[in-house]
Specification:
Structural class of chain A: alpha/beta
Number of strands of chain A: 17
Radius of gyration of chain A: 23 Å
Helix content of chain A: 40-55%
Largest interface: A-B, 64 and 63 residues
CATH superfamily of the largest domain in chain A: Type I PLP-dependent aspartate aminotransferase-like (Major domain)
CATH architecture of the largest domain in chain A: 3-Layer(aba) Sandwich
Oligomer: homodimer
Strand content of chain A: 5-15%
Chain lengths: ~475, ~475
């Protein structure tokens, strides 16, 4: 099933065999696996082959290591979603507004279990610490700073952001950054800087609905390109579109894409940037989930490979530190001047107290500690939700297993209708984000995006049980 | 000279005669005028006629009453600018970006005397009090409020804004308001809600350069309509444009227009709204200076006369309370839903801590006291700047005498060149806003906008002396 087109390595074969035993129920949750030495002896392979197979199975969420005890079968996650999307048609006028808004508004009610929400739980953020920082920061604000910071935004904050990139190996000068009212404004500014009404823009399939809304507002056409749930946009398909359709720009999420959670491997990101450079096509890169990785280190954004200044890299603190402060930024490459001026003449600046507060918070060093805790919480919530989906949903339900962010993408069995699930779930005060809002042609009618950004408590689990029932074909 | 087309009343004739004596130097600054009784006797008129004439002269800034002492000639202000503008052509593509930005960026330097600035002095704002309010407010923020307030913005703040309107006799429900990132975003949202690229939009002549930038960004055409420096847009000219050109919207500042300082009389505002209703044409009303009146009460906005929901009324706290917080609002009438959704999909919300802070500040009642002080300071600074202009500028310089806001508009004598004055002033670290940035066709080449929002100290006075020299025709 896995790696169909690649010659299997021995450890992959072994991992696939064990996965099959788990899925068949031969091995059950809680069973202890043979030790590496035992397995190597009984199967006649090197210990390192077993070790690598176990490592793979752990990465797939199927087994877990307990220190000084060995490997155990985990709660079985749903089978993975492994096929790339197949977008309909090529390039059309975008008209998603009414559909998307109606659903978003419905999911904003406070009494609803927010599985369709785009935000993680507020309890995961250091809001009290931020409030303290703000309380002391605003008393020391230089009132003349307003004017100094008009063009690019708070200089101390830009320095802190640049410093974080530097630590992660990405050299962006503080003066190449523009502070914005969240990433959403950054993305809109990027789009305004590189497109004119009537242009075509490449997006992923499925894509974050806000990108479709942005295209609609600016009179742009969307070209949805096939995207793989683990590795992101299909570069072959993209190359063809660049050649034949000459889009004005691409708008992509290269790390932990919303809604798929896909992460483009580093080599693929590099290849993407080189491909776009050959076509002189700008990339609007939405990297708001880049800090929410569950692996060993931050995945570099595509911007890391940008030599031509063609990547307009956007991010924010809204998903990982301070929702509601509305502080984001853009590193617009060669479009810096245009973007800075567009911002100056639309919203002038971001909120000065919020900028100064985040600059102070970043400087005083609580951020990395907070992020470590946040990532750990999200990774645990992902596993819990995958286990609940495996328990409650029809057996043929497939799911992504993202290595970052806080969204699961489910494909329900044939016959299921995500819009219907959405409506019936909402009647029971549960929100979901149905697949059709992630496509200009209302594709993904069997898909749901679920938010695992909230602690997996009884309320969430009960909601998933309800959803699982609703997801059964009639 | 004044009221050329209206039959003069007796007190107006008397006032004009006295003004002529002052301008001729027969009466000089500091001279005491005859008492009302003396003047009535010597001129053979009723005392009430003299009283009304003196009242007019006081309103023109020419004389001042000293309690229990009588009327004295004030420092003579420059002659008033009394003729409406005569815009060139009708409707053209807007292309002002480069010109305006180059000038704005030049005026942002900290070492410059900011006579070209669009902001008043930070020292005029209760920044310490706001900081205290923020410090206590953010500690009590409900983290879930973010989601509740997504669509329209902080409910407590909207209630406070609605309450202020109610006190001023304008019934706007809190749920008819959308909180925005400053008035600038409100205006852009309004424009996006009621226009499509290629549409024509009516603006005043001269107009605030940001409106031209907004039209340019959205691919709209500008129709500049003749505007009178005291009473605002010419309704006759506007009626003709509505009839013949069918613009998609008007974007006007009905009170203390930037740059003219003109204030449309109440009857004229009502007539404007009725005229637009007959043509079903929306009005984007920029009312950011409405609270900065020097008269007895707040001038009602055009929104007060709106029965059809056609006025998209925009304002903010940036000019009168909290620059840098970036909190504005829009009352979009029948376009409420469209505007709320556009905001949701571009910047999501305004900054939550800033919203909550302003709600708390407004509730606890320091605002009216602050505004009274601010208005008094600005009115005094207006008079001081007018006196300095009279002293330092060529005699034929004409000036507006706005009854609110913080901008003077000067027309220099024939032969003067505002762009040249701007360049030479900047070389001496003085900024001005030259007339041509207020017109899509670079008209007003002899005009300057000066900011009297800064305390009139020696530095400002010296800068005005330099400007006065530069303003002399070569």
């Amino acid at each position: 099933m896995r790696n169909r087109d690649r010659p299997s390595k021995r450890y992959e074969t072994l991992a696939d065999e064990i996965e099959a035993s788990i899925r068949a129920g031969t091995l059950r949750a809680g069973d202890r696996l043979p030790s590496v030495r035992q397995a190597a002896a009984s199967r006649g392979v090197h210990a390192s082959t077993v070790f690598q197979a176990y490592y793979r199975l752990e990465a797939r969420g199927l087994i877990r290591a307990r220190p000084r005890s060995g490997y155990y079968v985990a709660a079985v996650p749903p089978p993975p979603l492994e096929h790339a999307s197949a977008p309909l048609g090529e390039s059309i006028a975008v008209d998603v507004g009414e559909r998307v808004f109606a659903i978003l508004e419905a999911t904003m009610r406070r009494d609803v279990v927010p599985l369709g929400s785009a935000f993680p739980a507020p309890s995961l953020f250091p809001l009290a610490r931020l409030a303290k920082t703000m309380a002391s920061t605003v008393q020391r604000l230089d009132p003349r700073a307003n004017v100094d910071h008009l063009l690019l935004g708070n200089a101390a904050l830009r320095r802190q952001i640049a410093l974080r990139y530097l630590v992660d190996g990405l050299a962006i000068d503080a003066d190449e950054l523009v502070v914005t009212n969240g990433a959403m404004e950054a993305l809109h500014l990027g789009l305004a800087a590189v497109t004119r009404p009537g242009d075509a823009v490449v997006v992923e399939s499925p894509t974050f609905y806000a990108s479709l809304q942005a295209l609609e507002q600016r009179g742009l056409r969307a070209i949805e390109v096939a995207t793989h749930p683990r590795e992101g946009i299909d570069l072959g398909a993209l190359a063809e579109v660049l050649e034949r359709r000459r889009p004005a720009a691409c708008w992509l999420m290269t790390s932990f894409q919303n809604p798929l959670g896909s992460l483009m491997p580093e080599a693929k990101k590099r290849e993407l940037v080189e491909l776009l450079a050959r076509h002189d096509t700008p990339l609007i890169e939405d990297d708001v989930y880049g800090e929410l990785y569950f692996g060993a280190r931050r995945p570099p954004p595509a911007k890391a490979y940008d030599r031509a200044g063609l990547v307009l890299h956007c991010s924010s603190f809204s998903k990982c530190l301070a929702p509601g402060y509305r502080i984001g930024w853009i590193a617009p490459g060669r479009h810096l001047r245009t973007v800075a001026r567009l911002k100056l003449s639309t919203t002038l600046t971001a909120s000065t107290p919020a900028e100064a507060t985040l600059a102070a918070y970043l400087e005083h060093g609580g951020y990395d500690r907070h992020l470590r805790k946040l990532r750990q919480a999200l990774a645990g919530q992902r596993d819990a939700m995958l286990a609940a989906v495996a328990t409650h949903f029809p057996a043929a339900t497939r799911a992504t297993r993202p290595d970052g962010g806080y969204f699961l993408w489910l494909e329900l069995p044939p016959g299921a209708d995500a819009m219907d699930v959405h409506r019936r779930a909402l009647a029971q005060s549960i929100s979901v984000a149905p697949g059709p809002i992630f496509s200009s042609r209302a594709q993904f009618e069997r898909c749901l995006r679920l938010n695992y950004g909230h602690p997996h408590d009884g309320r969430v689990d009960a909601a998933l049980a309800v959803l699982g029932r609703l997801a059964r074909p009639a």
